Task: structure prediction
Amino acid sequence: MSFERPNLTRIGSALRRTVLTGATALAALSVAAHGSMAADVNTTGLAVTDDTVTVGILHSITGTMAISETGSVQAEKLAIDQINAMGGVLGRKIEFIQEDGASDWPTFAEKAKKLLVNDKVAAVFGCWTSASRKAVLPVFEQYNGMLYYPTFYEGLEESPNVIYTGQEATQQIIAGIDWVVREKGAKTFYLLGSDYIWPRTSNKIARKHIEKLGLKVVGEEYYPLGHTQFNSVINKIKLKKPDVIYAIVVGGSNVAFYKQLKAAGIDMTKEKPLLLTISVTEDEIRGIGGENIEGAYAAMKYFQSLDNDNNAGFVKAFKDMWGQDIVIGDVTQAAYLGPWLWKAAVEKAGSFDIDKVREASPGIELTTAPEGYVRIHENHHLWSKTRIGRAGADGQYELVYETKDLMEPDPFPEGYQ
Amino acid sequence: MRTGSSFLTRTELVYFAILAAVIFVVFPASMDIFRLNLFGKYLTYAFVAVGLVLCWGYGGILSLGQGVFFGLGGYCMAMFLKLEASTPEATAIQSTPGIPDFMDWNQLTALPTWWEPFHSFPFTLIAVIAVPVFFAFVIGLAMFKRRVGGVYFAIITQAIAAILTILIIGQQGYTGGVNGITDLRTLLGWDIRTDSAKYILYFVNGGLLMLCLLAAQFVRRSKLGRILVAMRDQEDRVRFSGYDVANFKIFVFCLGAAMAAVGGAMFTLQVGFMSPSFVGIVPSIEMVIFCAVGGRLSILGAVYGTLLVNWAKTTFSEMFPELWLFAMGALFIGVVLAFPNGLAGLYNSYVAPYVKRLISARGAGRRMAPAE
Result:
């Protein structure tokens, strides 16, 4: 380090450097005891000490999205707890700073900036809606942070600063439609969804795939978020008699949709028509009521009922921490993967530096994932299996099919745009 | 009795100077760029609050739809910035390169015609003011000429805010939908995301706010201001005196809209995106709260009120992420119950007499300009 007189604008960083040098000297004294020094594994000034590393959790815990995002927060806290119990990451205990996005996209951007600029967190686990992700994305790219994003989403994105732990649209959709065509002989489809980017993009992919198979889409409709009057579309469905209702209704609208569907005499257990959704997890069923959605199929990558040792341990730990009558949906499990994937990448890189973590991330695999085995693709999404579950009156899905191989994530699908 | 300039008493001059010192010296000196940028964001809401002081505090027109004008101003600016960010090179990955990304996701293959003029910066600057003002003018004309006022007007503005939000969200191919217009990068080639740009924008924003405050002060002091107060207190008498009440109302409503629009445009520049969450009913009501906390009769109070509420919001939510909304609720209820005239009322009844005594004690013998 040179000792030329710093100019005014540099004083801040020079001071910081001096402090860092002091810290390094101190760390050097204790290095024999510890192993790696903070300065070695952290060359960019992240919040890493010799004993701790700080990460951020950024979800809505107030506002309309709180009900959906709470599961993710719980899963992330559980994962952090478990990692700490195993000795932490590179010998450092994870501490977290939780911020509330308040279901408001600008607030997400503000808090993301606070976590990265002020708190210098080594990673952020957070966001749920696409809108919140789109709001924080420029912040993460500008300040070079790393976001672990848990929700299944529409794709069309591949940021070097995000690891997408949920499925992108093609993973969820193509396997689901192939299955319903192969196993149930479906020929005609009625697409419907809430009116925003995810359902629209997903239905676009679904329609292209259906038409590619030489089959027919007999209707496609969208309703505003929060819409609760589905009688007109239900009448149209009864008129057109599609083999499959492909539903991507989100949030509170689901409750009205499934209740009205049942009230209109469409019994999903008879599968005439069959209902396939990619938006209803066990969390939503709690609102809808199992008896109202019994018989519907969902295509996603995780169900609470999955029968494997990883999942048994995960469900037990989750319930022990957050209560016995809690349910775990697809996104909650994906959120749980975030801290584990980050830990694996940091340990592979031997460093907390964002650039090194990014470089180390592709190829990281997790054999302990509740959903089974996952691996990070070059495009920062996960290779994962797609599964079909049948909703039961108890609010749980029963697994009826899973893809033999991992589905490759393809956020920019050729021929589907 | 006036001293100094024609529309500022000496005491008011001091108050303006104090606010200017706070905005231009105290904040930049005491905060890092992240916090300063946050305060810059709060100050953009202050434009709306100042406009509301004129409309509501002086004119008696309670608008619960100021977010509409804030949003329109912000969207105009965002459209320009988005077009600049959507060069064919930057969007090469899309099916149709050269159009904003959200249009591509919504299967649009060409830029809608009404977006075209926003390639021009001068046009955008005009549109930032003109679009919201025109909108306000139409609303004002339709309402005030028919003598719709009071609660009915408030309800209608609220409905307009709701309608516009639904429109923006529904037309997502043209507006970015619920995501809003995001990922804005440069203004005429100047990267607005850098720290230096944030400093400059902060000062530009502060300067514009001071201009707005002076304009508001001018209106207050002018004959127009007195007519507004008269209208608020006894509308019929003003009408019977031969004034066309509706025109005054339309004017002040448009002025409030223009101020909100400037705030919206500055918001977009400083925060880097615009979304329908600023247009709807909730943010519009929040803006009224900023104004109420500051004191609806004081233009400077509105600025302090905005700063206080937003600072509290950020601080509470950082400290108690799970409970902060309750703290905010307590703050509003506390302020409204204890100080119905807001911070300004608090100041006038408790601090001002003390300050006055202090000044007159020190400046004994000199004639002081009377305060308000």
